[in-house]
Design goal:
This protein has 253 residues and is an alpha/beta fold. The chain is 48% helix and 17% strand. The chain has a seven-stranded mixed beta sheet with strand order 3-2-1-4-8-6-9, sandwiched between helices. A three-stranded mixed beta sheet has the order 5-10-7.
């Protein structure tokens, strides 16, 4: 059976982090370790993490990609899960990860949707079906594979070791999930599981400036990735990779 690490980057998010760690404490299958990456917080993020039994890793250079990389580098589990400080995973989140990864050795990375909480129903609808739904559709079209959603993902540790050599760690405008998605190797098994449920805060929609910042960073990440490998070639390589994976799956006992 696989062991599981959960990495949570956090920057001045102590109150949200408390809820996330409480949700992890209620998991039907407990994680083998929880790592909170303190990305230069000035609040009591580290104290909250330690009080909940999490291991604190410090990444003083601010940036979500750097924080995620620091946590993934420190993880000891066979499978590395990734949540945000405002994520609230369903009680069977890790159990679902265990079920999927242990059943299929060709599965490299798994991601799930985000169900928004907070703000009004209209914003929650926008977030779930336009913002996240559009992300899965549009980035999947360009990348040739299912993209990973940073508030709800997991991947094998050996895959991270390979992907890490290709991420743009020095780029402060890079989304971690987008960069990792474009850095995956064609043939890796990447899937979207709608039963892998995590609630996420609707606070990104508090103002249009925040929405635009996230979107502009997304377009920046796409430009960088597509300048390295064009979308048509990516789609062709991933189509070939899926055929290779299907052949491996057919050989499984």
């Amino acid at each position: 059976m696989s062991s599981f690490s959960v990495v949570i980057p956090s920057l001045n998010d102590a109150r949200m982090l408390e809820h996330c760690l409480a949700a992890l404490a209620l998991q039907t299958r407990q994680p083998d370790e929880v790592i909170v990456v303190d990305n230069g917080s000035t609040d009591d993020t580290a104290a909250v993490a330690e009080a909940a039994g999490a291991r604190v890793v410090t990444e003083p250079v601010r940036g979500v990609l750097r924080a995620t990389a620091a946590g993934f580098d420190a993880a000891r589990g066979d499978i590395i899960g990734r949540l945000d400080a405002d994520s609230r995973p369903a009680p069977d989140w890790i159990a679902r990860l265990e079920e999927r990864f242990d059943a299929d050795p060709t599965l490299t990375a798994l991601t799930g949707p985000g169900i928004f909480y907070g703000r009004g129903a209209g914003w929650r609808f926008f977030g779930q079906y336009i913002y996240i739904g559009g992300y899965f559709w549009f980035i999947g079209l360009l990348a040739g594979t299912v993209p990973l959603f940073g508030s709800n993902l997991a991947m094998r540790r050996e895959a991270w070791a390979e992907v890490r050599t290709r991420i743009h760690l020095e780029d402060p405008r890079m989304h971690d999930d987008l960069d990792i998605s474009f850095s995956l190797t064609p043939g890796m098994g990447v899937e979207l599981d709608k039963r892998l449920r995590v609630e996420v805060s609707a606070r990104p929609f508090d103002n249009w400036a925040g929405v635009w910042r996230r979107v502009s960073w997304g377009f920046h990440g796409m430009r960088v990735a597509l300048s390295e490998v064009g979308w048509a070639r990516r789609r062709r390589l991933w189509a070939e990779g899926r055929r290779r994976r299907a052949a491996r799956q057919a050989r499984q006992p």
